[in-house]
Design brief:
Rossmann fold, alpha/beta, 321 residues, 7-stranded parallel sheet, 12 strands, elongated
């Protein structure tokens, strides 16, 4: 029976309220590390990114039936070991897909129309027009790499711009009315704009590197709202310097840690990153693409729905009333 759940991240009162209505016991622990948490009594845990759920922690979870991660990524969980132990993994990428798509669209418009640069010039008393002459999305070819929840939502948002939208994904037949699925050779050949929507895995780590970038036939604008470690910062900076990339919209960065704390004290901050900070070819945001008031509720709602569905299936399997 699934009865007792531990909540490990703050600000999810809706989840607690809904699960308690289902008769579940919800305990909260927002401060302790995994070494100090007694997980043995719990049937499920709910978290975002405060803690890393590793093999050592999972071994202590004698009764654990599920791990629910609010959001899209599960890189802070040892997925392989959890699955090996028969633990179900739950996430809620559906909840923030529209927020990410809107944010990516906004960043792209800001970049191509020099909105941020022009704003910064005006507040310094400079009224400059010609060097801020923008570029239209209309008529461009947009390549979306990773065509899951956020990739599809981004393509839908762009459907009114009269652009040609292509997508690439490791899964077959995921294209739809908003994007034509093609191979990477076509993405390399035709794209004017690239938007990354992939999970962080061994295969995607550092995938945007020198060898990848040089395969493009045309210079392009680049958007990353997925995971920072999918991009090698030094190689991105070099591509901006040599004109292979016109501009970059970065909501995520290679140097982030799981908790997003002490970012600017990270010992690996490089000269290339400092170049990006000082470049008017780059727009940054602080991993907030999926961080809206609406998406918070939608992610919580989706997690609750999935947990309740899992409990019903579990009870049916073991004939628990």
């Amino acid at each position: 029976m699934i009865k007792k759940i531990l909540i490990l991240d703050k600000n999810h009162s809706f989840i607690i309220y809904k699960l308690k209505k289902e008769g579940l016991i919800c305990d909260e622990n927002y401060n302790d590390s995994t070494d100090k948490i007694d997980i043995s009594a719990y049937d499920g845990i709910i978290l975002r990114n405060r803690l890393e759920i590793d093999k050592k922690f999972i071994k202590k979870a004698k009764n654990l039936k599920f791990i629910a991660r609010i959001g899209s990524g599960t890189e802070n969980i040892d997925k392989d070991y959890a699955i090996k132990k028969g633990i179900t993994l739950i996430s809620s990428p559906e909840g923030n897909k529209d927020a990410v798509a809107e944010h990516a669209t906004g960043m792209l418009l800001c970049m191509m129309n020099y909105i941020v640069r022009s704003h910064q010039q005006i507040i310094k008393g400079k009224w400059i027009r010609e060097i801020n002459r923008g570029v239209e999305i209309m008529g461009k070819t947009i390549g979306i790499i990773g065509y899951g929840n956020t990739g599809k939502a981004f393509a839908k948002k762009l459907s009114g711009f009269d652009a040609k939208i292509l997508c690439y994904d490791i899964l077959p037949k995921v294209g739809d009315i908003y994007a034509k699925q093609v191979n990477m050779s076509t993405i390399f050949k035709k794209s004017d704009i690239i938007s990354l929507h992939v999970p962080y895995t061994i295969k995607t780590k550092g995938m945007i590197n020198y060898n990848f970038i040089k395969k493009f036939c045309k210079p392009f604008y680049f958007i990353n709202t997925s995971r920072g470690k999918c991009v090698i910062t030094n190689h991105l900076a070099e591509a901006l310097k040599n004109g292979k990339i016109y501009g970059a919209c970065l909501d995520v960065l290679e140097y982030e840690n799981l908790s997003f704390k002490n970012f600017f004290h990270h010992h690996k901050l490089t000269k290339s990153f400092l170049y990006l900070i000082n470049s008017d070819q780059v727009i940054f945001t602080s991993h907030i693409a999926g961080w809206t008031k609406e998406s918070k509720y939608k992610m919580d709602k989706k997690i609750v729905e999935k947990i309740i569905l899992l409990i019903k299936k579990f009870n049916q399997k073991y004939h628990i009333r």
